[in-house]
Design goal:
Structural class of chain A: mainly alpha
Oligomer: heterodimer
Largest sheet of chain A: none
CATH architecture of one domain in chain A: Orthogonal Bundle
Radius of gyration of chain A: 17 Å
Number of helices of chain A: 3
Number of domains of chain B: 1
Shape of chain B: globular
Helix content of chain B: over 70%
Order of helices and strands of chain B: HHHEEHHHHHHHHHHHEEHHHHHHHHH
Largest interface: A-B, 45 and 46 residues
Number of strands of chain A: 0
């Protein structure tokens, strides 16, 4: 089995991270923005796991598990917030939230 | 194991208080009075956490034994100082919350549990000795705060503020994590000491990646402390959040973020300025600080709502503190391998946290029945109708402006002195800009006292929220501002010890243990 070089993994992760960042910055639907943040977090996971596999370290795998757990909690909080916004405003678009902008 | 638990006892008290609140709350009678009990309970447990910090401070003479749980947490003087400070913020927030929540119609037990969880997260952040515990603490804090900001479910402003804060905050955590992933990838470890070693001697070809990692980590912290250009979320989140939570965000979150930032700067990134990386961290921080304080102060000038004005003032104070971060001993070069911060930032944070908690406690007396009245014009007559709250608000403003004999004055004085001492006045221009900024800020702080005391009252008589625990919160904050303001030396010395303690755990690791040998990359690649 030929191993995948570390550079490829890191490049893929960097692309995913940028993709997520662009998603957060350009999309206006809060749900899609949440998904984009998840993509960014998974890019981080990929980086960590890549480094760990390449160097036979274990801490990166552990850190990735922690990030997965935190990302799940973050999704729960985010979706609860989306729900409470939707209850009051019947919208999931960030541009419709402009009560505080002055 | 027992030793670890003893060292982390302040954290454990906060954690168990949170769990206890969450578990017992459903069994209490479903009245608002029963919920208000949790405010007093929370104040008591936070006071216990402070007491535990004080005992560890007093008996923690042996530097070799300050690290717990395999170098993930520590009870160094710096950790203890900052843990006590966040617990103090939590105590005053617990005291000033119950009546406000009842008036706003969202008095639930979960509020107090979340407040405890947030405080626990902050305590983990400031006690962390590795990227892993730092990240976990940061996330526990942030996620509790997102929910607390949006806690008034029926208020569109509150929910909107929580949503915006959440999205910006999670992007910032993603940046922090990406930076951390590269710090890990370059050094092969998550603890600050391993990262410091790797940064001091970068392998060929690592320079660019390390720059990227350090910059991303710094950007995430600039977001958390609300520094320009990452300050956009601050006014919205501060204005929409329940008033006691706004106070908690401007005191506790800021204290925790700066505590963790100092640890990152002086324990993990120490040596960056001296190694081949040549990253001018001190210059960058000072520049960000100056820009932040100027932008914050100029925007604060035009605000009509006191809550929003205090949000911009929080940005300005983040600027002062960022400049304070470059003040270090012995030779005053941030980035030198053995530099430690002076007491300037910890001491300034005490004054700032207490003053903003006092201000927001006084502001939560205004407005009742689901309404929040924090415009300047609505404070008219406060000095006559509720003299105590008016006096507390006035004193908080005077302290934030930095007028003697309050705590804010001595905080600013020490910060100026320490920054000036760096490399024989290298930062003199920055300090002059800071002084000019303080003059500008006096205008909008003192304008609030003009509204409270000097404007003629209209015909409408405003009702103020009066309640014993809120009075206690205001009284404690006012006493701290005046007493520590008049006798600042003890607190200053403690802050100095705290600053010097940033590297205690790192130093003890040098002596006590050698790092476990890492598997060689070459050996792994052969598999």
């Amino acid at each position: 089995m030929t191993a995948i070089p570390l550079g490829h993994i890191l490049t893929l992760a960097a692309l995913l991270f940028s993709l997520g960042l662009v998603g957060v910055l350009t999309r206006r639907n809060v749900l899609i923005m949440l998904m984009s943040v998840e993509v960014m977090l998974n890019a981080v996971n990929l980086t960590l796991v890549g480094f760990s596999r390449y160097n036979a370290w274990t801490e990166g795998h552990v850190l990735a598990f922690f990030i997965i757990a935190v990302a799940a909690a973050e999704a729960a909080v985010g979706l609860a917030l989306v729900l409470s916004v939707f209850r009051l405003k019947q919208t999931t678009y960030i541009d419709d939230l402009r009560l505080l902008k002055r | 194991m027992l030793h670890d638990l003893a060292l982390t006892s302040p954290l454990l008290i906060l954690l168990f208080a949170a769990l206890f609140t969450l578990v017992v709350d459903p069994f209490l009678p479903s009245t608002t009075e029963a919920r208000s009990f949790w405010g007093r309970f929370g104040a008591g447990t936070s006071a216990m956490a402070i007491l535990a910090c004080a005992m560890l401070w007093k008996h923690g003479g042996n530097e070799m034994h300050t690290v717990a749980f395999g170098y993930h947490l520590s009870a160094s003087p710096m950790s203890l100082f900052f843990t006590a400070l966040v617990a103090m913020s939590a105590m005053l927030t617990h005291l000033s919350s119950p009546k406000y929540l009842v008036e706003q119609g969202s008095s639930y037990g979960e509020y107090y549990a979340l407040l405890h969880f947030a405080t626990f997260g902050m305590a983990v952040m400031v006690s962390s000795e590795s990227l892993l515990s730092l990240f976990i603490g940061l996330e526990i804090m942030s996620m509790s705060i997102y929910v607390l900001v949006a806690f008034k479910r029926t208020s569109a402003a509150s929910v909107e503020a929580g949503m915006k804060y959440f999205i910006m905050g999670s992007v910032a955590s993603a940046f922090l994590l990406y930076g951390m992933a590269f710090l890990f990838g370059m050094s092969g470890g998550t603890s600050f000491i391993e990262i410091q070693r790797a940064l001091a001697m970068p392998k060929p070809g690592q320079g660019g990646w390390l720059h990227l990692a350090v910059l991303m980590t710094m950007a995430a912290f600039l977001f958390k402390v609300a520094a320009v250009p990452f300050h956009m979320w601050t006014p919205d989140a501060y204005e929409g959040a329940p008033t006691p939570i706004t106070g908690f965000m401007s005191s506790g979150v800021k204290v925790a973020a700066f505590g963790a930032f100092l640890k990152i700067l002086y324990a993990a990134l120490a040596g960056v300025g001296m190694s081949e990386l040549h990253l001018p961290m001190a210059t960058m921080l000072a520049t960000f600080g100056v820009v932040t304080m100027t932008v914050g102060n100029l925007l604060a000038l035009t605000q009509k709502s006191v809550k929003r004005m205090l949000a911009y003032s929080a940005i300005a104070h983040a600027g002062y503190l960022l400049l304070g971060c470059v003040a270090s001993v012995p030779d005053g070069t941030l980035g030198a391998p053995y530099a430690v911060p002076t007491g300037a930032v910890p001491f300034y944070l005490v004054g700032y946290a207490v003053a903003s908690l006092a201000a927001f406690a006084a502001l939560s007396t205004v407005g009742s029945g689901g309404e929040e009245l924090t415009g300047e014009a609505q404070l008219v007559g406060m000095g006559r109708r509720y003299p105590f709250a008016g006096a507390v608000l006035g004193l908080a403003m005077i302290s934030l402006a930095g007028v003697p004999p309050t705590l804010g004055f001595f905080g600013k004085l020490q910060l100026l002195r320490d920054v000036l001492a760096v490399e024989n006045g290298k930062y003199l221009p920055h300090v002059i800009i800071l002084v000019l900024n303080s003059l500008v800020s006096a205008y909008y702080y003192l304008r609030v006292t003009v509204f409270v005391y000097m404007r003629p009252e209209g015909r409408t008589e405003r009702e103020y929220v009066r309640e014993p625990s809120l009075t206690w919160a205001m009284g404690i904050a006012m006493a701290a501002l005046l007493i520590i303001g008049m006798l600042p030396y003890r607190a200053m010395t403690m802050a100095q010890t705290a600053g010097a303690g940033v590297r205690t755990a790192v130093a003890s690791r040098h002596v006590a243990h050698e790092l476990p040998a890492k598997a060689e990359p070459a050996a792994a690649a052969q598999k």
